[in-house]
């Protein structure tokens, strides 16, 4: 049951002001390119060919700089709708512009735009040659104030960009400045099949039995496609809650992931949620990609992991759709070592994995870092493997026994190699992140994650959605305002228990009770002894939850 709804009234009264409806994101509006619907043949001429990078040079660079896990490099280009590609007028009157490009040997391609502005009514798509993978439509809802954008990965070494517009619409701004050439760390994509296995074979999928007790926390973990100049890397991050419980989309990762990323680079970072198998075995098809593009730097430790605790926190530039079903993970800045717990991460950019520790964390310094700012962890064998970490896991959260985030991954020596299974990894301590990297707000988490200055040592997580329509319709609370007894009537007609929690406005649980959804059609809460004012009541059945405001007279 989610707790810690401190000052949650702000959510009810200020949500619209905090998160405007306009969304600047990787979010697509669905549909298919018009050329598909009209069975137009693929573009076969004027295909732009980009010279691939020198792989031996990349291999040497990656050996010298293993973290963060670079999987792509950017090739500079200058390709725009005004100077490249082909315009055609379709038989239904739609104006269609298509640009095809290839870079031989690429495992996947991402496009980065330095000019991007779609007028209302225009639609942009990107897809592979055999039309088995496409992204879009991207529309005016994807515009942002920096005029930047980035697509997700299109697998293979060739893609087509297509813009559809009716007559009379103002021209769009579409200009590609860089093309990311992925050379490792992505799945192979052939027809409708995706080959997984980038992560080591010892890794454990998050939906194996090892993850059963962490089904809520995993929803906050995201794979991050990090852009820094010409390099593209995989890292992992987590949504984190703040004491306003207002759903502000902060994502915490590692400083060595963000490092020298510019404001423009950050506007092109891509965050993938729910990128995981639905079951324990590796799937035969890639999970659907739910992504958001763009973030803004909030604070960082600095030092790229060589000093301090190696944290980097950004604020997403967009709201997160309810359909993503995310969770804002709770945290603890208690420096008492946790006796057991897990880390949830995306090794080598693969689907979400879970690693388990059963020996207490140890306070330590990361090798080469003079500060005692890290948790040292040794992983344990479990039923389905021996979860460790790899490149791409950087920035991932480690959780304590209370299922709260207590650190973020810097690096270490563990791997699936049999001689490395028992070697340690190092997570920057959340308590050090809090306010020990420097006195400036831009080097701390405290000003951002405790904006009400509560001084709490720990905060529970928070789920994005607080309004479940079916439960709203089937739960009746009366009278409201209430003097003594608050009556609860439910008509859910569902087996199992309904949990009811009464909170004050500081998020403190004053009363918890369970009702049988079928038998106890009406119950009550005695509120006679409570002081006058506003209270919150949470009612949930494990799958859905509804929040109501109650006024005590």
Task: State the CATH topology of the domain at 34-193.
Answer: Jelly Rolls
The radius of gyration over CA amounts to: 25 Å
Q: Would you identify the CATH architecture of the domain at 34-193?
A: Sandwich
Spatial shape: globular
At the fourth level of CATH, the homologous superfamily of the domain at 34-193 is Spermadhesin, CUB domain
Q: Span between N and C termini?
A: 28 Å
Instruction: Count the beta strands.
Output: 38
Average the pLDDT over all residues and give the rounded result: 86
> Which stretches are low in confidence, meaning pLDDT under 50 for 5 or more residues running?
1-25, 189-196
Any idea of the CATH class of the domain at 34-193?
Answer: Mainly Beta
Query: Which percent range fits the helix content?
Result: under 10%
Q: Given the helix and strand composition, which structural class is it?
A: mainly beta
Largest sheet: 12 strands, antiparallel
Give the DSSP E fraction (strand runs of 2 or more residues): 35-45%
By DSSP (H or I, 4+ residues per run), the number of helices equals: 8
């Amino acid at each position: 049951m989610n707790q810690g709804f401190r000052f949650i009234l702000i959510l009810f009264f200020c949500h619209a002001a905090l998160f405007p409806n306009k969304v600047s994101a990787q979010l697509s509006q669905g549909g298919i390119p018009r050329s598909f619907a009209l069975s137009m043949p693929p573009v076969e001429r004027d295909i732009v060919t980009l010279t691939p990078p020198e792989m031996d040079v990349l291999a040497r660079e990656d050996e010298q700089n293993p973290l963060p896990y670079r999987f792509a490099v950017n090739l500079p280009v200058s390709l725009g709708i005004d100077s490249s590609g082909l315009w055609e007028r379709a038989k239904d009157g739609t104006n269609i512009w298509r640009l095809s490009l290839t870079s031989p040997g690429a495992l996947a391609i991402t496009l980065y735009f330095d000019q991007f502005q779609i007028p209302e009514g225009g639609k942009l798509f990107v897809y592979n040659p055999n039309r088995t993978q496409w992204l879009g439509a991207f529309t005016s809802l994807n515009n942002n104030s920096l005029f930047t954008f980035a697509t997700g990965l299109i697998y293979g070494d060739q893609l087509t960009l297509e813009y559809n517009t009716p007559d009379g619409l103002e021209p769009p701004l579409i200009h590609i400045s860089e093309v990311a050439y992925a050379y490792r760390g992505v799945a192979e994509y052939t027809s409708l099949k995706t080959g997984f296995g980038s992560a080591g074979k010892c890794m454990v999928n998050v939906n194996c039995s090892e993850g059963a007790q962490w089904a809520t926390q995993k929803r906050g973990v995201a794979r991050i496609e990090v852009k820094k100049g010409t390099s593209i890397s995989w890292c992992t991050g987590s949504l984190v809650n703040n004491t306003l419980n207002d759903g502000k989309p902060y994502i915490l990762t590692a400083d060595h992931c963000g490092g020298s990323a510019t404001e423009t680079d950050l506007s092109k970072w891509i965050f993938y949620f729910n990128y995981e198998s639905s079951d324990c075995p590796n799937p035969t098809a890639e999970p659907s990609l739910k992504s958001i593009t763009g973030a803004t730097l909030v604070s960082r430790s600095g030092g790229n992991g060589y000093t301090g605790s190696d944290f980097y926190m950004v604020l997403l530039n967009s709201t997160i759709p309810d359909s993503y079903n995310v969770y804002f993970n709770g945290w603890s800045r208690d420096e008492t070592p946790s006796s057991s717990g897990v880390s949830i991460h995306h090794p080598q950019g693969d689907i979400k994995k879970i690693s388990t520790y059963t020996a207490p964390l140890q306070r330590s310094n990361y090798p080469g870092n003079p500060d005692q700012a890290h948790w040292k962890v040794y992983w344990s064998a479990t039923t389905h493997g021996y979860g460790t970490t790899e490149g791409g896991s950087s920035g991932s959260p480690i959780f304590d026994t209370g299922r709260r985030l207590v650190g973020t991954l810097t690096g270490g020596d563990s791997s699936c190699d049999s001689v490395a299974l028992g070697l340690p990894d190092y997570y920057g301590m959340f308590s050090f992140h809090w306010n020990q990297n420097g006195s400036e707000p831009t080097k701390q988490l405290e000003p951002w994650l405790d904006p009400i200055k509560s001084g709490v040592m720990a905060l529970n997580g928070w789920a994005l959605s607080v309004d479940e329509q079916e439960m709203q319709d089937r739960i009746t609370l009366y009278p409201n305002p209430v003097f003594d007894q608050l009556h609860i009537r439910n008509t859910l007609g569902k087996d199992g228990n309904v949990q009811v929690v009464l909170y004050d406005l500081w998020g403190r649980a004053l009363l918890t009770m369970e009702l049988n959804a079928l038998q106890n059609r009406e119950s009550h809460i005695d509120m006679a002894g409570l002081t006058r004012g506003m209270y919150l009541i949470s009612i949930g059945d494990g799958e859905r939850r509804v929040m109501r405001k109650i006024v005590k007279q």
